[in-house]
Structure formats: C-alpha cells, structure tokens
Fold:
Amino acid sequence: MNRRIQKRFFKITMLCFTPFMVVNAIAQEKRRVLEEVIVTAQKQEQSLIDVPASVSVIDGKAMAENAALDAQDMVAYTPNVKYVDSNSVPTFTIRGFGTPAQGRHIEPSAALVIDGVSYGRTTFTADGVYDVERVEVLRGPQGPLFGKNTVAGVLNFTTKPADAEWGGYINVAAGSLNEKRVDAALSFPIIPERLGARIAIRDRYRESNIYNTTTDEEGTLFDQFAGRFKLLWDVSDDVVLGLDYFEAEAETVSTPYQIVGATDRAIEEWRKHDPRVDREADGNQSIQGGSSNRESESLTFRYLHALGELAFFDDFNAEITANRSKITSPAELDTDFSPIFFSTLTTLPTDRYEQTSVEIRFDGRTGAPFGWGTGLDLMFGVLHYQFENGSTQRSVLQLDQLDDLLRAGSAGLPRGSEDAAARALLAAEGSVEGQGDTLFIEGAVQVDSKANSVFLQGDWHFTDTLNATLGLRYTSERKQASTYSLNDSVVIANAVAGAENFTETYDKTENDLSPKLAISWEPVEDFRLFASVAQAFKSGGMSGPVVAPVDLTYRPEEAFSKEIGIKSYLFDRSLQLNLTVYETQYTDLQIFAYNGSQLTTLNADDATGRGVELDFTWLPPLPILSVSGSIGYTEATYDSFPCAPGIAGADVADNPPGCGTQRMNPGGLLPMDPGGLLPVRGDVRQDLTGAQVQYAPVWTASLTPTVRLPIGEHWGLLLGLDIQYEDEFFQNIDNDPVSLQDARTTVNFRMGLAQRNGNWRFILNAKNLTRESHSVVFNDLPSNPGNYAAAVLTDEPLVSLDIRYSFGADAASIGGD
Structure:
C-alpha cells in the first residue's frame, strides 16, 4: 500500500470515529443494540463480522422503508459501488472496475449471484431481483468460492424463500413519468410444516420523459412483467428439496439516446430532417428511434442433505444446485444517431444467451490439522458451467440519404465536395439518387463455452479469536467461437461504415488457479481485524458481431488484491463500523470500445485500483433516530496503456510510436475509393498510461438519517433523508473531455406512515430533489468527429407513493417500528 493511501486511511478513520466518541462521552443511558447481521458471503450462513472481506449488506426491512425495489436503489448506500440500469445491459462497477455499458456479449467483471446461482449476464439483474430479502456486496476478487468473472467482486442477492406458513404482501405504487407498479408475493403451505410455496410478481411501467421529435412519439423506459415461483420441501429432518423458477418480459419503446454535442455542420443538415434538433440534452431526442424487447427465464433445483457425523467430520452437509437459464433480446437501433434515416440495425432473429450450471458442494467441521487450534471448517466441491451465446444482426443503409449523411460531416469530407462524392459512390454501386436502393451489412457471432472447476476453502480456528482462511479454485475452460460479416456493397459499406467481408473462428482452452489467504483476529469482543490476499480471473474470447476483423480477440484478465480492514460493533453494540483499505492489480484488463462502426473488447496492459471504504450503522442515544452512511475513495488508473483508443477526430500522425497498425476509425480505404474523394483516417491511438479508468469516480459517499416517531400505540411516522455524492468520472474509454460526467450530489426524501405490527405501510418518496442530470451511456461518433450521443436520464425530481399491506412472516420481518 502506498503512503498516500495509508495517510487517507488514518484521516478517514479519525474523521469517522470522532463524532461517535463525542456522543458516547455525553450520553450515559442504556443504548439500543444493533442486531447481528447474517450473510452468505462465503456460501454459508455466518455473522458479517466473521467474514474476512469487505462486505456491505442491505436487508429487506431497509429496502421496504426506502421503497428501494431496484438493484440500482439497493446498492446506492454502499461505498465504491456504481450501478446503472441501462435496461438492456445494466452496468455495475466495484472499486472502479466492472462490466461496461453496452457490453452485450462480454462476460461480467462483477459477478451477479441470485439465490446461490451465478449468472453470466448482468441483464438477469433487471429480471430476477425483486421480492428481495437481502443484498450483499462483496468487493474485490472472489475467485476461490465464486469462480471466474469475479475480478471486481460479487453482487449477491437473496430473494425471500418459500414458506410452509401463510404470509405475503401487496405493494402498489404510482408516480412521476406515469409510473405504475405492482409488487406482490404470497407464501402458503401445501403440506403443513413440510412443503411450502411462494409466488412473487412484479408489473411495472414508466415513461422515459424523452420525446422523439423525429418520429413524434413518447419514449418508454420500461414496461415489464416478471414472476417467480418457489417450492421448499422438508422431505425429512435431514433432507430438503427446493425448486425456483422465474421468468420476465420487458419492452422499451425508443431508446434513451439524445444528442449531447454536435458540430455546426451537423446541426445545419440535421435540421433539414427535424427542425427541432438540438445539440444539448433537453428531454427531446432527434434520432430515427429504436426499441428493445427481452424475455428471460431461469429454473433452479436444489438438494440439501445434512449427513451429520461422517468419517472425520462432526457436522457434514451436501448440497447440489442445478440451474438452466436463458435470455432472448431482439432490438432495433438507429446507428447513425441522427434524424437522417441512413442506417438502422436490427438483431435477426434475436440475441440469445443460454447457460447451464451444476454445483456439488460439501461442508463440515473437523479437528484442527496437526492438533494446532480448536477446529477446521472445510468446504469443497465441483462446478460445471457452460453457456451458448448467439447473435445475428443486420444493418440496412438507405442510399438516398447518403448525400445528407456526408453533408453532416460523416467521412470528414471538405464542405462542397459531398455531392460529388455521393454521386461517385452511388455510381460505383450501380445506383443513382432517388431510386430508393438499399445495401445491407450482416454479421453474426456464436460462442460456446464449457468450464469445469474444483474448489476448496478452509477456515482454520487457531484460537477462539484467531482464524485463517485458505481457499483455492482450479478452473479449465474451453471456448469456441465463430463470427462473420457480409455485405452486398462495392464501396459504400466500407467507406462509410468500415465494413469488410470476412469469416473467423476461435478455439482456446484456458486454465487458471485462483488462491485466497486471509487472517482474522478479534483482540477484544466485537472488534475484528483482518488481512487478505486473493486472486480471480476472467476468460478471453472473441468480440462480435463486428463489421470488420479489427480487435477480434482478447486475452484473459487477472486480478490480485491485498486488503486490511476492521469489522466492529462499538459503544455497547450501538454502532457497527467497517473499514477497509485495499489495492487490486489487474493484468490484461478487458475494456470495451466503440469506434463508430462496432463494439469490441480490447486489453489494456495493466491497471491498479487503490482506495479506502467505510460503512456504518449507528443507533444514537436519541431513541427516534438512526443513521447509516458510507464513504468510498478509489484511485483506479491504467499502469500501462500506451496504445489506447484515441479521441475521435485526432490526427493519426500524433499516435504514440508503434501504435495504430490497424485501421479502427473508418474514414475510407483508398483502393476502393472512386476518384480518391474520401480522406484517409488511420487507427487513432493515444497513451492513457496513468490516466483514470472509465466509470471510476474517485469519491463516493452516502448519509441516511432516519427518524421514527410513535403515533399512539399502533402507528409510527417515518422520516428519512438520503444524501448521496458521486465524484466526476469519464464515460468513454478514450477519456474524451466531453464524456466527463460532472460530480453530483443527489438528495432524496421520504415520509411514511406504518403500523408497528408491519401490516400497513404508506411511503411517499421524492427522489433527485437536487435536480441532477446524468447519462448512463455515452458515445462519441468517430466516423463523424465532434458529434456525441448519450442515454441521458431525466433531471426532474421523481415522486412516488407506495402503499403496502403485509401479513404473516412478511409483516413480522418489517414490523417493530
């Protein structure tokens, strides 16, 4: 750890402890006591304080009070975590590294786990995260227990289980942007005390507050219905069977892209097609629309057997978890991001992802090795994981719009030459303007992966207060892929879109060994220190679909982390405080780049993330008040990235030495350019060594004071405030200054009326009272430098009213206010 991080660690520690120490000295009366937090961060139930890792937890009671029904709302209270729901491909980063926006076919860097199943696409977050009992955020590599694709960490969601007793709830809500939402669940017995079931549904609709002035239609952010069914059967005192199934359908009308920057030349031409086009995000969009639909389903079978004493184990258990899941997601997108109706991309017939996994796991307690200590908790098992990912897409080019596209600046032609170039290009295709001719560019990718792994983790208890955790996972994965691009164009598809006809295949087997070592020491009761090192990996593969054989394959990525931290309950358990300082080194970091024609996965050489994170929950002497909060500091930078993608419009002559041997920016190819009218642009590159990583705000913080006032014997008033800060960060891989998202402070307020027994609850939520605007996806357009499009979320405050009725165990879990 460098000295600067150590100094910040000390300052943050003193800053956070001081107010609690002052209040502790003033108040002498008996304090309220925080309940123990139980987690499954190590695939078994244990107290949060006993987990030697940086973990944050949000439980169902807090979610109900905050009306936090989406993953984005749930993780907003955790340090160094950024989650953005872009609907089709959610983006989450942990400590500055994670899954990129628009990453349709890239495996995640922060793993998504729902009810013990690891999902290979973040899209399942939008479809499977509801009726949630608890969410755990595990920061840093988690390779030994959770396997590949955990180089940044894990988001571990646990939904409410089936129950053989009656219970449930219904939550109806209405709010801004014509939002309508219904969440409901019902647990019921099939065989009393033996076989129980649970049904949960979500139905929601909300507009995007974006009006498309080109197509004259309102945008829909989401229109979704999802349902889950669970069974839990206590076959005997020793055997439990479980069955989980969920499915979802979602539809988005138009995309949330808006023009956020444009040249005078582009604006002049675009306004011929749409007089209301603007160069700034103002709630209107001027593109040819688009849409996306998604269907997903997941089926999981579980078998648990408590075997008791077996061989040298005192308490031995076996568990089998088998899952089959799939997603289909047809979509349509205006790929020139303008009111000119030139190019439209559709998926044919659809994007498709299917996965199958089977994990067999054993755990038990035995005597300490060599008699050194009080015992050893051992977990070991095997995992088979395979997926198939296929996508075919077709772009249609409207040749009658070619001259308009060139006049707007595409291909970088000098003013006055566009019409001559358009006529020459059309002639080469055997076409003339006005004939209504079209060209197509079709591409596809098919990826098949099979991975097998064996893992082992032991918690060695040297004494009642000193433990060591040793973990190891060996993984072997074979990935086969094929991709192609085909077009019927002589010149234009290449000159304007950079497209080439090609076919490529990929077949590679990768082996990885991911270890973990952690030491945990409790010098005094409820105050635990830990230190750990861990490693994880993410496999390489093939990009696609793409239109040209540029940056087709990418190498595997590895992460190695070092952490030291504190887990504690202080002041008679009225304060829970967790603090971690860390450093993670990435080798062959996988990044995602859009070059104006295609999305590809590249490798940066090396990167490092260093920082500090703290979260706390405090019950002060004032009995009506509780306070929680978090602070995160991250320095996420490229250690070596000498040939990073360059900023659109840069001169290839300024490339760093040895960079730019492949054409990435599609300005045209001279051998296919009739008359030499199109300028030559090379593969623009820059040196980003030492620069900030994309989507990596340096500071994040949250503060959530909550007041609960009794009203009579049966009711209570809830008043809550959320203050959330996020530092500035780059949204584009090239660190274009235009893509810099400004720092923002978001303030949310909620007021609720709740029965103390948990039955009725009324919550009025007002979010984004500070009117902060931000975008979730940002694209510069290298084929038309100076123009930018982004998916911008509304800056309007969003107000909603949730009315919830709970009964049975669901009421008990949120009652007691």
Q: What stands out?
A: Confidence is low (pLDDT under 50) at residues 8-29, 662-674. Residues 400 and 435 are 7 Å apart (CA to CA).
